[in-house]
Design goal:
The structure holds 2 protein chains of 2 kinds. By secondary structure, chain A is of the alpha/beta class. In chain A, the strands form 7 sheets. In chain A, strands 3-2-8-7-25-9 form a 6-stranded antiparallel β-sheet, sandwiched between helices. The two termini of chain A are 19 Å apart. By secondary structure, chain B is an alpha/beta fold. Classes of the chains: A alpha/beta, B alpha/beta.
């Protein structure tokens, strides 16, 4: 998968030195041979070994630079004795050898210090930095001895043509779409320094209250602690820092001092959902004026009108929004942006970010499906009405007393629909899903599914609506449904859903709420701009800089990706804001080295589920926070998850292994 | 209980304890450099790694929980090598200045370097310039710092100042003031105490003495009612033993107890006299014979209070001690409602609480120990902290979750409404439910400015709390309606299961309140004992007969924590003591401490000899000092009076409040604290209301006590209440210390 001269990455051993190219063995990993379109990498070094792409590379300088990087990364080191001093000694001894003043005993000291660092350091960065250096000393022994014996500097010691570009990561950070510095915010909890915790989160995630409550936490799927026992409850620990700031009424804890003065650049943002808020925050921190246009009478997008109060109390969400306001963001509400306005923005603003989400409910594709049929109620407008009333007192309440509601879905939105229906006093609530229980849990969360079951939602799996039946007045009255079974593919492929003949059934109901998916309303795009779209009807970007096919017009969040998670929208918008902040100043579309490395590492994958973890006591159970009991929650909108007690939070934080790693490319 | 095996020994541990805690309790040694038992594991030194059967690699014993059936090995040649390597790293470039370093001889780095046999340095690192910093009481030498992080943790988790942080930067890491250029904190000096090396030091003590030359005198702090444990450290000031002994510093057993800056830096308040002044003594005896009244402060030992009580019994003296009398009345009223002779609260219950209400105290300066326990509740249990006071305290913001501002004087009304809010439905005594139902909440709300929403917010915020504590401050105890307030406060204990802690205003207010029959009206001729009078016995050295200061006496104090704690003679006193006078008057005892075992048992004291009162520390139980007063049954009377009309205070108001580190003439006399200027601090708004300007010298008079102050504007203050100190008033301070703390007075510019 990558052409290498030499590699010890992740336990492989490839040594193509001196072999004809035709006999070269390739590395099994997606190592970043090509750093950027027009720049090749010469070597890559990291926690799991090192790889050489270009034979000309100065391996000893590479090792020295790697050790030096460990010194520089303040956010991840200085926290333990072996790491702090050991790291310094590694660098000093490597540098001594590289500049031609080394002695044979230095190699022994290097090995000794490395051993203690690897066994006793507090975080993985200290435990893993020596790994590639030891590999080098073993496999490039002759090169080391040559410098030591001949007292000469390494071949590129005095050359500065090669850039050594480093990045600190962790499996969880890599898995998080917005790359939150998770070990840092967990350390803040462990150390009872909630302000530090929150600042760490806010480096890349302004919606700390929100994503401390309703994030689907992909990070927990790639938590290294799972290799030992169970993953850390990463998501819930985020909430502590945010609650600390709010509970004590502190001044805003920004990750960096906001720019004192505005620079003379303006950005228009369409949509005040998670993506729009995120971009506005990071641009605002840098002193770039943002005008955020929002069609709804409230701020917050789908988290405001989609996610119900019992999962995400609006009071807390409003704190996240106030944070965005605090950097001088200008919100223009009740304003639906159209093509004419976009044309105007194009002239008046230095850049425009589209972040209007996907607000059209898709159909279930049944016979006789008409959006105007009474009893047919799209999930988006259903949740809009509920949330606008419950959270903001706008409009009318939804009262389903005596009614039977059928929701077709299987994702988060459908869970919100059925649980809100329970709270709206429906007589019976049914969730119809094409696949099985396991899949619905995978698509949402274990908690979400079980809480819905507890609240009395009836789940009918392996079923779909074939036809909508109306009464004499044209009102929806029943659904004809098909039943399916999973038939294994004889060729070993994915099992297929096959309709079971003769197993059809009828559900009498008052409402059908389709929550299968949403699509973007693209009617605001000026036709003459001929913007490129994806095959699934969203704005197309390269997924790295988030610029659309029109210069200066960016897109992030669901309207770019399709309906996805809050954290995905935040991650995209954070990146887009970074690109925009440079674009408005220079007119260039660029990524920082940090961002380029971020993308490389995501491709390579930081998490290794097969790695054996040592140095930690196994079998410490993951903490579970208290939930409001069914009786106390199902007829009201009180927050269901009461959050960790302090004792639980600290016990959970102490399970975190601080799996920081440093990766470095020589370019 | 959990059972595990450590080094072949069966060890019992409590659930939730770490391997290190279990080992220490069993007396088994695991080396550490960064472990501090009163904070969360820091985990920076990595020396405490152990081997656990079934776990790969080394396990950090300070953080890993002890589990049932676990088999632990704390030592092996491999562990030794790693620990030795860590010590080699700690020693890299550590300045070889032990000869002049304050910490030498008591230095963890020295100890562990020797323990692991590191006798040479095989490799080094490039060094860079390291800063030396010096603040008022505290100095920091970056080059000596090993970054164990103990100071940072204790400052945040126990003290609550959160004034220092680590600048993270690998080898350049260092400690620095947090969020400010210079150190801005309450100067408790706990960071100095916990520093295992000589990096954080007392600027006053620096270069003055070696650790091994100093003799530690275990004592109890004389400055406030917390009576914290401390060591006075003394040695001969000159080169020969005949020279006078001198106190060099105060230290504390920081693993188990905590000390504030007044205790730590305000230690040399002794009254030095050449010898016995017989003439003055005879005059004193004559004065006692003439007198019908003894006025005294609560900065006194239990034994001395006992002597005064005996003198009263024999000669019928009126005993005047207003602050103790108010506290006595408070406690007596409290007992009639609670049904117990003493309140149920304690500092331990406070630190363990998950909900705390502070009522009527500027607690940060009033009582640092109480504040530290509130900090611990906040940090350890994320306690909801409701702070109810007419003035917000910015320095408490990081622990307080709800500030409730009420109008000056309305404490009774506020507490009544709070009782109704929190205790509704829990009270089964008709008299009391009727009282609560009949409250005129509209009036109380309007006058106190505490609204229904605020009370509901308190209730909501305490919903999930299982261990609630109520701290009652001096504003309530010295309130004109203190007795009714006490009965209201007792409702929380009796019906709410809430732990109530009334903060005794002075060092031994509780002891005096329990020991002495106090009188309200003075007679014709008054002996003042550390108080104004016609004949004055003073430990400040400004009276008619010199008396020993509290660091020159042995005896006991009764702390706000209901404990009787011993204190010892740190410096000799060559003059007469109260016992000499009493003996001359026929109330005879050989030593003052002969009275220790005679303290009134009906009030909860034990008949224990002074020398039998324990004072030691163990890994198992922490601080073992003194004994706890017995709480006994008390007759109950559930009567509550109607809430009195709430007073109105308008315009500029003075609040009697000493700055942090000052508690009165004793602290002000201590050399490091004597430079403090008495400043009247007010807000911009106060300045306008009182027509004052920043830096103006003013004269004011409270209850006939005149004083001059410099006025300064504190931008953290709001409203029209200013903080007026009294620590500089000498014995006159006593005249003010028992009146309601808020007053209105004319403030005039001094020409």
């Amino acid at each position: 998968m990558a052409r290498v001269v030499f590699s010890t990455w992740r336990g492989e051993f490839i040594d193509n030195r001196g072999k004809p190219e035709s006999e070269w063995v390739e590395s099994a990993y997606k190592l970043p041979e090509q750093y950027e379109a027009d720049r090749n990498a010469k070597a890559f070094i990291g926690w799991d070994g090192f790889a050489i792409f270009d034979e000309d590379v100065d391996v000893i300088r590479l090792g020295t630079e790697y050790a030096a990087t460990y010194q520089q990364y303040s956010e991840a080191c200085g926290r333990c004795a072996p790491g702090r001093w050991g790291g310094r000694i590694l660098y000093d001894l490597m540098d001594k050898i590289a500049r031609g003043e080394g002695e044979v005993s230095d190699l022994e000291h290097l090995k000794e210090v490395s051993r203690t660092m690897m066994e006793t350091s507090k975080c993985e960065i200290g435990r893993t930095v020596p790994k590639p250096l030891l590999d080098m000393m073993e496999h490039y022994h002759d090169e080391f001895m040559d410098l030591i014996e001949n007292k000469k500097p390494s071949k590129h010691y005095h050359l500065d043509e090669v850039s050594y570009i480093a990045k600190v990561t962790a499996p969880c950070m890599d898995a998080c779409p917005t790359h939150v510095d998770i070990p840092a915010y967990i350390e803040g909890v462990r150390d009872l320094r909630y302000d530090d915790s929150l600042k760490a989160t806010r480096q890349t995630m302004p919606l700390a209250h929100t994503c401390g409550r309703v994030c689907p936490h992909p990070c927990e799927d790639e938590c290294r602690r799972a290799n030992l026992d169970e993953p850390i409850s990463i998501m819930e620990l985020k909430r502590l820092g945010a609650d600390y700031e709010t509970d004590h009424g502190l001044e805003w804890l920004h990750p960096q001092e906001p720019a004192k003065e505005k620079i003379d650049k303006k950005v228009a943002i369409v949509g005040a959902g998670p993506a729009g808020l995120t971009a506005a925050y990071y641009l605002g921190l840098e002193g770039i004026q943002c005008d955020v246009y929002e069609a709804l009478p409230v701020l917050g997008g789908e988290v405001a009108v989609g996610v119900p109060e019992y999962r995400m109390p609006v009071g807390r969400y409003n704190k996240d929004i106030e944070l965005v306001k605090s950097v001088g963001t200008n919100f223009i509400m009740n304003t639906k942006v159209d093509a004419d306005m976009l044309r105007k923005f194009d002239k008046e603003y230095d850049a425009t970010l589209l972040a209007f989400g996907t607000r059209l409910s898709k159909k279930v594709r049944a016979k006789n499906e008409r959006e105007d049929m009474p009893g047919y109620w799209g999930a988006i407008s259903f949740l809009d009405q509920i949330n606008l009333y419950v959270k903001y007192g706008i409009g009318e309440p939804v009262d389903l007393t005596g009614k039977t509601v059928v929701c077709v879905g299987g994702g988060f939105t459908s869970m919100d629909v059925v649980r809100c229906s329970v709270r709206a006093n429906a007589k019976k609530v049914i969730m119809l899903y094409r696949r099985d229980e396991k899949t619905i849990i995978r698509n949402t969360t274990y908690e979400e599914y079980h809480e819905a079951v507890e609240e009395g939602v009836e789940f009918i799996f392996h079923s779909a609506v074939e036809e909508i039946i109306e009464d004499e007045n044209g009102r929806l009255k029943a659904l004809k449904c098909n039943r399916f079974e999973l038939v294994p593919d004889p060729n070993g492929g994915r099992p297929q859903l096959v309709k079971i003949e003769g197993a059809d059934f009828i559900i009498e109901c008052d409402y059908l709420i389709p929550a299968v998916s949403q699509s973007a309303d693209l009617s605001l795009l000026p036709e003459e701009w001929e913007l490129e779209l994806t095959s699934w009807g969203t704005l197309k970007t390269n997924g790295r800089d988030y610029m659309t096919s029109r210069k200066g017009l960016f897109a992030a969040g669901d309207c770019e990706y399709g309906p996805m998670t809050i954290v995905n929208a935040v991650g995209q918008a954070k990146r887009a804001a970074s690109v925009i902040s440079r674009y408005v100043r220079t007119g260039e579309i660029t990524l920082t080295d940090e961002e380029i490395m971020e993308d490389h590492l995501r491709k390579l994958r930081v998490y290794n589920k097969d790695e054996k973890v040592t140095g930690w006591l196994p079998g410490l159970p993951r903490q579970h926070s208290e939930k409001l009991s069914v009786d106390k929650r199902k007829d009201n909108n009180r927050e269901v998850n009461l959050g960790f007690t302090q004792e639980e939070a600290i016990a959970e934080a102490e399970r975190c292994m601080r799996c920081y790693y440093i990766a470095m490319a020589a370019v | 209980m959990i059972t595990l095996t450590i080094d072949g020994q069966r060890v019992e541990a409590k659930k939730g304890e770490t391997i290190l805690q279990a080992a220490r309790r069993a007396g088994l040694y695991i080396p550490t450099m960064c472990y501090l038992s009163k904070v969360k594991p820091i985990a920076s030194c990595r020396l405490c790694v152990v081997e656990v059967e079934g776990a790969d690699g080394f396990i950090l014993s300070c953080q890993a929980p002890a589990l049932d059936g676990m088999v632990v090995r704390t030592n092996s040649s491999e562990l030794f090598t790693h620990r030795q390597n860590i010590m080699k790293l700690y020693d890299v470039n550590h300045p070889l200045e032990c000869g002049v370093c304050d910490k030498s001889g008591a230095c963890d780095l020295q100890n562990k370097t020797l323990e692991f046999g590191v006798d040479s340095q095989e490799f080094s690192a490039k060094e860079h310039k390291r800063d030396l910093r010096k603040w008022d009481f505290i100095g920091y030498d970056e080059s000596l710092c090993i970054l164990c992080e103990k100071c940072v943790h204790v400052c945040n988790e126990v003290i609550g100042d959160d004034a220092i942080e680590i600048y993270f930067g690998g080898y350049s890491s260092r400690i620095q003031p947090k969020g400010t250029e210079e150190l801005e904190c309450t100067n408790c000096g706990e960071c100095v105490a916990v520093c295992p090396v000589g990096a954080l030091i007392s600027t006053d003590f620096q270069y003055k003495a070696n650790a091994w030359e100093l003799e530690k005198i275990p004592a109890s702090c004389a400055h406030c009612s917390a009576g914290c444990s401390l060591y006075y450290e003394r040695k001969y000031a000159g080169t020969c033993e005949a020279s006078e002994q001198k106190l060099y510093r105060v230290t504390n057993e920081f693993e188990f107890s905590t000390l504030c800056g007044a205790g730590r830096f305000g230690f040399d308040f002794e009254n030095r006299v050449e010898g016995k002044d017989e003439v003055a003594f005879n005059k004193a005896i004559a004065a006692f014979k003439k007198a019908d009244t003894i006025r005294f402060t609560s900065r006194i030992t239990n034994e001395e209070a006992m002597i005064l009580q005996r003198l009263k019994e024999k000669y019928g003296y009126k005993l005047i001690n207003e602050d103790a009398r108010h506290y006595q009345n408070f406690l007596e009223s409290y007992a009639t409602m609670s049904g117990k002779t003493l309140f149920n609260g304690s500092l331990e219950a406070l630190a363990d609480a998950d909900g705390v209400i502070v009522m009527g105290s500027r607690i940060l300066t009033d009582n640092p120990a109480v504040r530290y326990h509130i900090t611990m509740a906040s940090k350890r249990h994320n306690a909801r902290i409701i702070y109810m006071h007419p003035m917000e305290d910015k320095q408490m913001q990081n622990v307080v979750t709800q500030f409730v501002k009420y109008e000056v004087g309305t404490e009774e009304g506020v507490l009544a409404m709070l009782a109704k809010t929190l205790l509704e439905g829990k009270i089964d005594v008709k008299k009391i439910t009727t009282f609560l139902n009949d409250l005129d909440e509209g009036y109380l709300s309007a006058e106190s400015n505490v609204g229904e929403e605020e009370l509901e917010a308190i209730k909501k915020s305490l919903t999930r709390c299982k261990r609630i504590a109520l701290v009652i401050g001096e504003d309530c105890i010295n309130h004109p309606r203190a007795e009714q307030i006490a009965r209201l406060a007792a409702l929380f204990e009796r019906f709410g299961g809430i732990s109530v802690l009334p903060v005794a205003p002075k060092t031994n207010s509780l002891g005096v309140a329990l020991i002495c029959d106090l009188d309200e009206e003075a007679g014709e001729y008054t002996i003042g004992y550390n108080a104004p009078g016609d004949f004055v016995l003073s430990s400040l050295g400004e009276g008619d007969l010199d008396m020993p200061a509290l660091n020159q006496q042995e005896g006991t104090f009764t702390t706000l924590n209901k404990r009787v704690v011993p204190t010892h003679v740190a410096l000799p006193f060559h003059g007469y003591v109260l016992n000499d006078i009493a003996s001359a008057l026929g109330v005879e005892a050989r030593y003052t401490i002969d009275y220790t075992e005679e303290l009134p048992q009906e009030k909860g004291f034990e008949a224990v000899r002074f020398d039998d009162i324990p004072y030691y520390f163990t890994n198992q139980e922490g601080e073992i000092r003194g004994y706890e007063l017995k709480r006994m049954k008390h007759s109950v009377d559930s009567t509550l009076e109607e809430v009195a009309e709430l007073p109105e205070f308008n315009g500029a108001i003075l609040y009697r409040c000493d700055p942090v580190l000052q508690f009165g003439p004793q602290t002000y006399k201590a050399s490091q604290l004597s430079k403090e200027e008495p400043i009247l601090y007010g807000s911009e708004q106060f300045a306008m209301a009182a027509k004052l300007k920043e830096g103006m010298r003013v004269r004011l008079s409270v209850e006939g006590v005149e004083m001059e102050r410099v006025f300064k504007i504190d931008p953290d203050l709001k409203g029209t209440i200013a903080l007026n100190p009294t620590f500089d008033l000498g014995l006159r301070e006593d005249l003010l210390s028992s009146i309601y703390r808020y007053s209105q007075t004319k403030i005039e510019e001094v020409g």
